[in-house]
Amino acid sequence: MDDDLKSTTRRAFLRGSAAAVAGTAAGAAAAGPDPLITELQDWASATGEGVDATPYGLPIEFEGDVIRRNVPWLTADPISSINFTPIHALDGTITPQGCAFERHHSGAIELRKDDYRLMINGLVDTPLVFSYADLERFPRENHVYFCECAANTGMEWAGAQLNGVQFTHGMIHNMEYTGVPLSTLLAEAGLDTAGDLADKWVYVEGADASSNGRSIPMEKALDDCLVAFKANGEALRKEHGYPVRLVVPGWEGNMWVKWMRRIEVMDGPVESREETSKYTDVLENGVARKWTWVMDAKSVITSPSPQSPITHGPGPMIISGLAWSGHGQITRVDVSKDGGMTWETARLGKQGDSKALTRFYLDTEWNGEDMLLQARAMDETGYVQPTKAQLREVRGENSIYHNNCIQTWYVNAQGIAENVEVS
Amino acid sequence: MDDDLKSTTRRAFLRGSAAAVAGTAAGAAAAGPDPLITELQDWASATGEGVDATPYGLPIEFEGDVIRRNVPWLTADPISSINFTPIHALDGTITPQGCAFERHHSGAIELRKDDYRLMINGLVDTPLVFSYADLERFPRENHVYFCECAANTGMEWAGAQLNGVQFTHGMIHNMEYTGVPLSTLLAEAGLDTAGDLADKWVYVEGADASSNGRSIPMEKALDDCLVAFKANGEALRKEHGYPVRLVVPGWEGNMWVKWMRRIEVMDGPVESREETSKYTDVLENGVARKWTWVMDAKSVITSPSPQSPITHGPGPMIISGLAWSGHGQITRVDVSKDGGMTWETARLGKQGDSKALTRFYLDTEWNGEDMLLQARAMDETGYVQPTKAQLREVRGENSIYHNNCIQTWYVNAQGIAENVEVS
């Protein structure tokens, strides 16, 4: 450890620590002659739970608030609605399936592997229907990718409305997927790779009642799309499309069709409901942008944040957050404590994979005064995450989707954070 | 896709596919004029479950066999016992916490974050006790590491005894950990880094009734050990040491002290029960090797395997498995179908992290005849995983721990696999 850092950290920490201990349930003991020594954790006085207790485990009861949450007033009915990943309470980059956000258009359906079928038809030599067992016989790949709903942060267009990063930015998760490249299955059906592929599309639909059909240009279909059946090592959860969903790396979550039932190769897009009346971006002049598939570079501070206040006094503080880009790798994240007037470059927890969440940390000191916290992400294309003002200039305020602007948290001297706008 | 591969795969697949479909519940339809077309997945006729149904989700009911399993006759009592990760049913590399193996010496205990204390004492300038909140104020890191019990595969020393890869190799999991480097906390307490660190050790104990104390040489303590509080993004589970455990990358799982309560800096090892009468390797001549901390390079085929038979006919087949090394990265995995006479080099799902699980695949063809399947791992040090005969030559058969030999599955013409030994 660097000696200067060591001494600095240390002097600062001992100040902060006293305050932290005094703030705990065991605070009384802090009045003793040597509170730091008398506070040793007791040994358990009894044995604990055996290895036969939980064949499949859940989080400990004390973490009962780290759950998906929906907002009833956002939608008319929970079967066509969303809930949010508790990103304020998570760290690292992987999202456990159990608390990864859901978005359904007609509810999460149950399909058995034995009953499952996937058809490829349309402009192919040999239309095929694959059983789940068939899919397991093709070479498969493992990749970590983020999945973000196009409407993530959508409530922020009209102003700072939801007071929690779980609700402003929680329609995202990041998992290690195992699946067969879509290009492999298209080749199996005899896709005619001659001619201008730029004129060809695939139309993908799910087996749920909504079908949620989406058109995908052939270039993307052959690039990195995966027909996935595992996430974070285990089977997809029912709510994430068990047994098979499409993974469309870096593109809006609505295209990651769940309970995938059919892929039709076509000579143009379908212009379905989900890509015309929905998932298009209405500009100031009333014109709607369509085919805005890629999720641009974005970041947000998860701690401190409205659901994760500062619980200690002045001194060492870790500012932590997430950054991601549908265009590839995150190369840099800057953090501002003064609403964007000055910036410090954050440390990346580790270099994230392409089109995957990257965790960033600013290892800093809190002077005990209020702050206007912001994070700003940059990706490998050189793109820089815009301010809300810059985004509104181009997009107006009628949009619902693709809001990737810089988020601001106001943190007061008590460490309480709230969602605010800065002009 | 390569044209030769494409045509080969395709011809072969279509043979295999018919057989596969005939083997499914929908097999009857296969008698029809064009079964592959008539098999299209139905759309759901009703809406599914809403987003308010499961704030924290569990696997779908159809995956109810993908669970940790213990073997009652292995130990006298489940509070000092083990269970096994269902690696036969997982893919990719990440292990979900819910089905990651457990090993307790006096059961899994419950500790609240507010009550938690971690002491550092002994040969330091300033003995310190950290609260959980204190730990959150130090710079933290994210790393994916495997954790393998030293006794994993221990039942195989005496011969092929347990007929399932979950039981022969399932005392392993692989997670993304978030924590503070142990070196940072030792620096905070003022570890005297002058003098010969090679003479110094840390003794680490847990807050469970067994305490499970282990001595770790200072070089390792300062290298890559993490004081971890998150795994796969969320809090550690109760059974994995909530709220804080030690992560000792590449070293035997018993040293990854759970419910971590104290770190004492000493001028030598303690020679505790867990590093003398246990977790030492008795050789043929009765002499016991001690301080055998590193888990050497190892691999195993997870599918096909006794719990994961081949369910299709001849033709395309994916042989899948896991490889890992406590010395760093896996560089190559070979697979044999004839008990080690001939080998083919497998494809790595992706380059695994150092001291983390690496997934391998052999994309091959099954001729429908019986096989003696083996996998052989190599790591960045050039080490090659040994045969059982080679390992016994050096270690005898009295050992319990550190069995990293090549595993053999006999697969018959019906695709059924069993655990066997080859001379």
Description:
Two copies of one chain form a homodimer. Helices cover 13% and strands 28% of the residues of chain A. Chain A is α+β, with helices and mostly antiparallel strands and 423 residues long. Among the domains of chain A are: 37 residues; 167 residues, Sulfite Oxidase, Chain A, domain 2 (Alpha-Beta Complex). In chain A, strands 4-3-12-7-8 form a five-stranded mixed β-sheet. In chain A, strands 5, 6, 9, 10 and 11 form a five-stranded antiparallel β-sheet that branches. In chain A, a hairpin with a 5-residue loop joins strand 13 and strand 14. The longest helix of chain A has 20 residues. The two termini of chain A are 41 Å apart. Chains A and B meet through helix 1, strand 1, strand 3, strand 4 and strand 5 of A and helix 1, strand 1, strand 2, strand 3 and strand 4 of B.
Could you give the count of β-strands of chain A? 23
Which percent band covers the strand fraction of chain A? 25-35%
Instruction: List the helices and strands of chain A in order.
Output: HHEEEEHEHEHEEHEEEEEEEEEEEEEHEE
| Greatest chain-chain contact | A-B, 131 and 131 residues
Mean pLDDT of chain A: 90
The Cα radius of gyration of chain A reads 24 Å
Quaternary state reads: homodimer
| Bulk shape of chain A | globular
- Biggest sheet statistics of chain A: 5 strands, mixed
Tell me the distance between the termini of chain A: 41 Å
Supply the number of helical segments of chain A. 7
Instruction: Give the uncertain stretches of chain A in residue-range form.
Output: 1-36
CATH class (first level) name of the domain at 97-149 and 176-289 in chain A: Alpha Beta
The CATH topology name of the domain at 97-149 and 176-289 in chain A reads Sulfite Oxidase, Chain A, domain 2
User: What is the CATH architecture annotation of the domain at 97-149 and 176-289 in chain A?
Assistant: Alpha-Beta Complex
Query: From the helix content, strand content and strand pairing of chain A, which structural class follows?
Result: alpha+beta
Strand order in the sheet with the most strands of chain A: 4-3-12-7-8
Question: Helix content range of the residues of chain A, please?
Answer: 10-25%
CATH homologous superfamily descriptor of the domain at 97-149 and 176-289 in chain A: Oxidoreductase, molybdopterin-binding domain
